[in-house]
Every structure is written in C-alpha cells, then in structure tokens.
Amino acid sequence: METSLILQSISKYIHLTPEEGAYFITLLQTKQLKRKEFLLEDGEICKYSAFITSGCMKGFTVDHNGFEHVMNFAPPGWWIADMYSLISQKPGNLNIEANEPTDILLLSKANQEKLYIQVPKFERFFRIITENSLVAYQQRLMDNLSLAAEERYNNFCKRYPSLINALPKKDIASYIGVTPEFFSRMQAKILRSPAK
C-alpha cells in the first residue's frame, strides 16, 4: 500500500505520532480503477472518501439533456467524495469516475468515525479539508457567475497546474462551462496572443 503521499498530505495540517499514523493506515483500503471506471454513480450513497495516490478522478453531474457538468478533478494528493451524500448518508447526484488508470486509498465513513474517537486530532484535519473544499466550491460558483470564460480557464490553470495538458479538452471545457468548440477557439486565441 502506497501510504507516504497520504501521510505527507496529512502532516501539512496535523502532527501524527508513528503509532497514530500506523493506526490510520490500518483503516484504509486500496483500490485500483481502470480508465472510465466509476467509484460512485448518481443515485448511490457515498460511503467513502477517496485519496488519490496516482492517476486522476473527476466528479460530475449529468443534466436532463445528457450533458456532463464537471464539478471537480482530483489529481494525486487530493481527496474526492460526494460530500452531501457522505455526510447525510442519502443518495447523491455526483458521479465519480477515473479519467485514467487510478490508484486510490479509501476511508469509509464508519472508519472515519472510529478515527475521530481513537485519534481526535483527525477531526481537525477533516474540518480543515472540508472548509477548504467549501471555500473552493463557493469561489468556483462566484467565478462561474461573474467571470468571462478566459478568466475561468486561467483559474482552472492555477488550481490544477498538473492537469492542463493531461485532461481531455472536453472535460476542461465542461469544468469552465463552455462547449468544446468554444474552448478550442479560446485556447487558440490565448496561444496567438503575446505573453504579458
């Protein structure tokens, strides 16, 4: 089990003793996903938070016309879950799919609760992660309402620098809320314009 990345990520927020780190690792499950394989589908109850160790996941919804709306991406070192469903334990409407072959570590809701009892400082860690997620979501909502497509693309590049050339253009277009055709024209225009 590749656990150094997850322990490194946690150490940015809380300090764990070797024993606490070892206990945390015992609560995780490993899973390998093929490209296009789902971790979670619309209508299911989210029972796990997933930490990506390699590959990339995307969270998206599908509207009544069958159009995909990408909500977020999770490259290595990021967590992903349907927060509404995980917290409420009601069916969610988020699909979580592997963009490429992906390795993840899963922490079940039940084990997360166990962790809070055995190592209370993890409550602080997950509070910070949840707050960061909420701030990012609200910022993204504000950007979608008030920024031009080019500015939204610039924000995507800042948020996911490692994914700019790794993702299908249609996924990036969906994330910033434009058609793939518009995105191609916009990208060509950005490439033509002189660097500032």
Automatic annotation (TrEMBL):
Q: Which InterPro entries match?
A: cNMP-bd_dom (IPR000595), cNMP-bd_dom_sf (IPR018490), RmlC-like_jellyroll (IPR014710)
Q: Residue limits of the Cyclic nucleotide-binding domain? A: 31-115
The identity of this protein, by name, is Crp/Fnr family transcriptional regulator
